[in-house]
Amino acid sequence: xxxxxxxxxQAQRHxxxxxxxxxxxxxxxxxxxxxxFVMVAxxxxxxxxxxxxxxxxxxxxQEATNVAKAGPLASMDAxxxxxxxxxxxxxxxxxxxxxxxxxxxxxxxSGELEVPYIGRYPAVNRTCQQLARDIKAELEKKHxxxxxxxxxxxxxxxxRGRVYLTGAVRVPGPQDLPSDEDLTLSKAVLRAGGFTEFxxxxxxxxxxxxxxxxxxxxxxxxxxxxxxxxxxLQYDLPLEPDDxxxxxxxxxxx
Length: 254
Description:
Oligomer: single chain
Structural class: alpha+beta
Helix content: 25-40%
Strand content: 15-25%
Order of helices and strands: HHHHEEEEHEEEHEEHE
C-alpha cells in the first residue's frame, strides 16, 4: 500500500466516524417521540463506529510485526567487520531464533570453530560479520528456515599466528602477527633489521596458502623499494598467518 492510498483510507475512516456520531445525536434528539427507535439507532451507531476503529488495528499490528522482523536481521549488520579472527580468539555465538544464551567458542589451532549443527568451520582471517553471514547460509540449507547468527569477540588473542622471513635480511626467522595491528611486508622487513647489502628489494616473494594442498599456494612478488624508498604505501602487502617471505640476492652485485 502506498502513502496516498493510506491517507485516503484514513480520511474515509474519519468520515464514517463523523457520520456515526451525527446519527447517534439525531436519534437521541428524536428519542422522546419515537421511543424504541433510539435503542436501534444507538446500536447501529456503535456497530458502525466500532467497525471503523477496528479497521486501524490490522495496520498497526502489521507494522509492529514488520518492526519485529527487521530487528534481528539488522543486528547482523552491526557485527564487527574489521578485526580478522585469529587462533586463540574466544567468541560468543548465538542463534537468535533459538532464544538461548550465547555459547562460548574458541578458534582452535587448526583455525576452526566447532559450530552447533554444522561442526568444524573455518574462522581464521574472517571478521565476525563475514563469519556470521557464512554460517547463516550453511544453517539455512538444512537446519533453519531463517537463522540470525550473532558472533562477537569476548577475548582477543595476543597474536594471530606467525610469518616467516628468509633470505637477504639481517635477522631472518619467524615473526608474530599481533592481533591489534596489521603487520605489512615492509614492517616485517624493518623488524628483521632491514635488507642486507645485496638484497633484491624489487622482487620480494610472499608465498601464501590459498587452499589445503601445496599446489594451491600462490606467490606474490612485491617491489619493496617503492614502499621504503619512495613512500608508495599502496604497494604494501598486509601479511597473513603462515606467509613465507623470501628476499633473494641480486644477480649482479655492483
